[in-house]
Design a protein that fits this description.
By secondary structure, this protein is α/β, with parallel strands linked by helices. Helices cover 50% and strands 16% of the residues. It has 2 domains: 255 residues, Rossmann fold (3-Layer(aba) Sandwich), CATH 3.40.50.1820; 125 residues, Tetratricopeptide repeat domain (Serine Threonine Protein Phosphatase 5, Tetratricopeptide repeat), CATH 1.25.40.10.
């Protein structure tokens, strides 16, 4: 592994140790497999402190070597609030040829076969229910694998109701017919799905060609309900491309979670003629409904939308901003302040003063405080006297 990749991996590892302090191991008695299977469990740092919070779950095949790499990337992303906290489950597969037994398929049908079929049922019928009974999980499930396990996770897409919401396929060695079956599924799906696919430019032809066909067919299917990203990493091998893929995959899948940045502003907000407040509301509804992540509207995002409303003179939208503020921060002065700002900009200082007065009796938030409200009240009262 090149020196720079070793340093990146070490960084992820160090972060994961600090942020996933609740890393434990468990053995699950599997009726489907007839043996116990070992798993690694990574709980977020906030898990014990926040008893009401539920978390997305990331399931990792090849958990023996993917766990630390993924947990480090997740920890780094959550530190900057670019990714939500999540529970990570790593399935151990490096004992006595388990990896190859687990991924056994029938080459004629291109489907799990014998021990592969048993392992498929173990994950869906035993592991996922076990985790969801034992831990506080949100409805959003991700699954990832590398090479043959990256191919195997796609079998869950073949089900009428896919078990997972997001799939991370790192240089998959695709099963027969998979480059056709996956796009067919995507073309018909009625529910949102996320799919990440990557390959190294150093991968062998046997791996690269089916992946390229799969990419082409997915693009032809072109279903807006499928969030899809495909990466080809230059100068990488079948193994080193994994460390490039992991953050790219996670940031792609959780794009809607990220705070508003310049790209999102320029591409999605600045082009709007109206509906700025609606955009903010939909962004956070998508986090809740699609990702199962419940967080209040970030004040940084709120200010971005407020500023564009003021810049475009869309003052009536401040009323909607007030509703959003009251929904997420009912005890704070945000909602009443937005109404005061709306009346002020519309030339009604009397009503503006009243709203600022109401706000002054509520809890400060962000850069809003009582002193600021008192200043606004005086300003509006002075302005009201001048306009009489």
């Amino acid at each position: 592994m090149p020196q720079i990749m070793k340093k990146v991996y070490l960084l992820f590892l160090l972060i994961s140790i600090s942020s996933f302090a609740q890393k434990t191991f468990d053995n699950i008695k599997s009726v489907k497999l007839g043996v116990e299977r070992r798993i690694t469990i990574g709980l977020p740092a906030s898990y014990e402190a926040n008893k009401d919070k539920k978390y997305p779950v990331l399931y990792l095949l090849d958990g023996d070597y993917l766990f630390d790499a993924f947990s480090g990337a997740v920890s780094y992303g959550t530190y900057w609030d670019d990714l939500p906290e999540m529970i990570i489950i790593g399935i151990h597969q490096n004992k006595d040829g388990e990896r190859y037994d687990d991924t056994t398929i029938d080459q004629n049908t291109g489907l799990p076969f014998e021990k592969g079929a048993e392992f498929f049922e173990f994950i869906g019928a035993e592991l996922v229910p076990y985790i969801e009974k034992k831990y506080r999980t949100s409805p959003f499930r991700l699954i990832a694998g590398h090479d043959i396990t990256a191919s195997f996770i796609n079998f869950y897409l073949y089900k009428e109701e896919p078990l997972f919401n997001a799939y991370i396929c790192l240089s998959p060695e695709l099963a027969p017919k998979m480059e056709v079956r996956i796009p067919e599924k995507f073309a018909k799906t009625k529910k949102p799905l996320s799919f990440y696919l990557s390959v190294a430019d150093g991968d062998i032809k046997k791996i690269k060609e089916p992946i390229e066909k799969l990419d082409s067919n997915i693009k032809i299917a072109n279903n807006p309900l499928v969030s899809y990203k495909y990466d080809v990493f230059k100068g990488t091998t079948h193994y080193t491309e994994v460390l490039h893929s992991i953050p790219s995959a996670l940031y792609s899948i959780f794009e809607v979670y990220r705070p508003i940045n310049s790209t999102e502003y320029n591409d999605k907000i600045a082009v709007l003629q109206t509906g700025y407040a609606d955009y903010l509301e939909k962004k956070y509804l998508a986090m809740s409904e699609i990702l199962g992540v419940q967080i209040p509207v970030r004040m940084s995002d709120f200010k971005v939308i407020e500023n564009v409303i003021l810049k475009r003179n869309a003052y009536d939208e401040l009323g909607r901003m007030a509703e959003i503020g009251n929904t997420y921060y009912p005890k704070a002065m945000l909602g009443e302040y937005e109404l005061g700002l709306m009346y002020e900009k519309m030339g009604d200082p009397k009503h503006a003063s009243k709203k600022y007065q109401n706000a002054s009796q509520m809890e400060p938030i962000g850069d809003l405080n009582k002193d600021m409200m008192y200043e606004k009240i005086d300003e509006m009262n002075t302005l009201a006297k001048k306009t009489k």
